[in-house]
Amino acid sequence: MKERILTGDRITGKLHLGHYVGSLKNRVELQTQYETYLILADVQALTTHFEKPELIKQNLRNVALDYLSAGIHPDHATIFIQSMIPEIAELTTYFSMFVTVNSLRHNPTIKAEATERGFQDMYYGFLGYPVSQAADITFCKATLIPVGEDQVPHIEQTRKIVRRFNQLYKPVLLEPKPLVGDVPRLVGLDGNNKMSKSLGNAIDLDSTQEEVSEKIKKATTDPARIHKTDVGHPEICPVYAYHQAFRKEGSDEIYESCKKGQIGCMECKRKISQSINDLLEPMRERRRVYQNDPKKVDEILMSGTEKARLVAKETMQEIREAMSMNYF
């Protein structure tokens, strides 16, 4: 039996280039080597979108299209909907009995996102979503989790939960390990240290050629450069970070030319726009195919969810037995 991967996204909006380099690229590359499960985390999306649940239905299909257009193939990966696997909710409840509030409050990802969203007092669901993520991972006994750098604390939380469960009851769960992409954290267009849909500084995976070019044109660059011949500081420039991520072979040349004032910001932006569009063009083609056949997308989601549900039932039988909760 192949080792299992579990990864996915809270479906709070379309995926962007930060998602791609952080974990989606790894998912595509590994889907034939591992038994891959991809979760559309609609319940966890409610942690920040509980007032607008109608958006989640739309986002669910948008993110599914992002997966398929990026190269996830339904023959190799199981895409499923979190809310349609009730065993995940049950397992979340069991885990929550022995996870302390302090450990959740000290989770750096939770703290950072709470600050970003201006939460003065955290909701129970938001504070506890790392516990829900632990259930996502363990219900299918996944051992490898492709994630962005900001999600690593959640994987460590899951590892602690698994160890605690196995110690308290029986050793039936497996400890996962994270797999971070080549670009752990992609800087935002505005120079913010993270590309984020909530910050509005991202390039979505479904962007047109024109949208990519326009967004790159407006991207923050080295503020010290006024003229093309000014000495540049590429190490602080978001556009150079994109060269490193999406145009690796030519990035050294860009670095030297910028440092010597031999290339202007507009030319630098033109080159990276072309490289990003070259990356996205095959995705656009695949997206058009799936967009023209929405019934096929729904079939993929229903089939994947049915398969995941069967796995969940098997795991929960073991969980209940380990906890002496198999009463009859």
Structural account:
This protein is mainly alpha-helical. The chain folds into two domains: about 5-185 and about 295-325, Rossmann fold (3-Layer(aba) Sandwich), CATH 3.40.50.620; about 205-285, Tyrosyl-Transfer RNA Synthetase. Helix content is about 55%, strand content about 10%. It has 14 helices and five strands. A three-stranded parallel β-sheet has the order 1-2-3. A two-stranded parallel ribbon has the order 4-5. Strand 4, helix 9 (about 150-170) and strand 5 form a beta-alpha-beta unit. Helix 2 (about 40-50) packs across helix 3, helix 3 (about 55-70) crosses helix 13 and helix 4 packs across helix 8 (about 130-140). The longest helix is centred in the C-terminal third of the chain and has 29 residues, at about 295-320. The chain is globular. The model has no long low-confidence stretch (mean pLDDT about 95).
What's the structural domain tally? 2
CATH fourth-tier homologous superfamily of the largest domain: HUPs
Q: CATH class of the largest domain, anyone?
A: Alpha Beta
Strand content: 5-15%
Compute the separation of the termini in Å. Answer: 31 Å
Q: How many β-strand runs?
A: 5
Q: pLDDT average, as an integer?
A: 93
